[in-house]
């Protein structure tokens, strides 16, 4: 089932997400719905707060960007309760967008590589070193679990330049090619 993507201004996007318990009801169905929602919106990652659930769960499929970023080929993950163990000191600035902020793209500096621990949908624990654009996707999605969005990582001047677009998103006047839920809608 395609879920609505919660847009900028929705309170759930600013909440610290809660740990997912092993007995979370219908977890597999939620994961399947999140993948379907992400694919429908042409995204490469989706965090649970973006579908209105303040829990530490995200899905990623980097295949759509594999031509530009070969490290993303086959990079499909379900990450439950992810935590960063390490982040490289070296950072890379690249343009990002977000399904919850349609029409906004800005350069964001992020660690070039990360080591992350998480559980998958079978509740198996993984510890993984992730590099390049795949690491960027993981960091972007994990930020949603802390109540942050990528525009929090840009300069005040760049945020000010996007103020009109942000207000349009909050007012619900922005157009999306996917099912979305704006504030008050």
Automatic annotation (TrEMBL):
Chain positions recorded as Fe cation binding sites: 98, 140, 144
GO-annotated biological processes: translation
Gene Ontology MF term list: metal ion binding; peptide deformylase activity
Enzyme Commission (EC) number: 3.5.1.88
Cofactor(s) in the UniProt record: Fe(2+)
Record: active site: 141
Keywords: Hydrolase, Iron, Metal-binding, Protein biosynthesis
Details of cofactor binding: Binds 1 Fe(2+) ion.
InterPro entries listed in its UniProt record: Peptide_deformylase, Peptide_deformylase_sf
Catalytic activity: N-terminal N-formyl-L-methionyl-[peptide] + H2O = N-terminal L-methionyl-[peptide] + formate
General function of this protein: Removes the formyl group from the N-terminal Met of newly synthesized proteins. Requires at least a dipeptide for an efficient rate of reaction. N-terminal L-methionine is a prerequisite for activity but the enzyme has broad specificity at other positions.
Family in the record: Belongs to the polypeptide deformylase family.
Record-given protein name: Peptide deformylase
């Amino acid at each position: 089932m395609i879920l609505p993507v919660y847009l900028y201004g929705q309170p759930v996007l600013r909440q610290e997400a809660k740990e997912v318990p092993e007995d979370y009801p219908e977890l597999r169905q939620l994961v399947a719905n999140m993948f379907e929602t992400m694919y429908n919106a042409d995204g490469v990652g989706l965090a649970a707060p973006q579908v209105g659930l303040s829990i530490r769960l995200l899905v990623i499929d980097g295949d759509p960007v594999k031509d530009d970023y070969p490290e993303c080929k086959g990079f499909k993950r379900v990450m439950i309760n992810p935590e960063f163990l390490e982040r490289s000191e070296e950072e890379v600035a690249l343009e990002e967008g977000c399904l919850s902020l349609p029409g906004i793209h800005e350069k964001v500096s992020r660690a070039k590589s990360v080591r992350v621990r998480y559980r998958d949908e079978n509740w198996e624990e993984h510890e993984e070193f992730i590099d390049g654009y795949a690491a960027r996707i993981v960091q972007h999605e994990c930020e949603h679990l802390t109540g942050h969005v990528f525009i929090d990582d840009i300069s005040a001047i760049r945020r000010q330049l996007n103020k009109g677009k942000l207000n349009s998103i909050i007012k619900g006047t922005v157009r999306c090619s996917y099912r979305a839920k704006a504030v008050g809608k």
